[in-house]
Amino acid sequence: QLVESGGGLVQPGQSLTLSCVAPKSAFSAYAWAWYRQAPGKQRELIVMITRGNNTKYEDSVKGRFAISRDNSKKTVYLQMNNLKPEDTAVYYCNAGTTDLGSTNGLYPWGQGTRVTVSS
Which residues of the chain register pLDDT less than 50? Predict the structure, then answer.
């Protein structure tokens, strides 16, 4: 089961760090990604990290978000800085795909963690 945490209500310009615990035996073998689902939109991949720690970011978050992984803890992180109202969404993690904008994930989806950016 994927367990995301760390979301909350923040003001524009503030930061949050999301965590995703993925107790999968094959954790280190896969690329992992963060997805988000904004109100009224589909869930889509916005940032990913390969098993070799190469990363890709959607243009809207490039320079503000940073993904990392700790294979020993089977955890993926998303550091989000300079948050904007348009970052408001439910954030999910999953494995297996490297395509920005993808709606697919390898494992059943977790509950996600809600991020609200509002003044």
Answer: none
Q: Rounded to whole angstroms, how far apart are CA atoms 93 and 71? A: 15
Strand ranges (E), 1-119: 3-5, 8-10, 16-21, 32-37, 44-49, 55-57, 65-70, 75-80, 89-95, 113-117
80 in the Ramachandran plot: left (φ > 0), alpha (ψ -120 to 50) or beta? beta
CA distance 12 to 25: 38
Q: How far is CA 83 from CA 8, 86, 118, in A?
A: 12, 8, 9
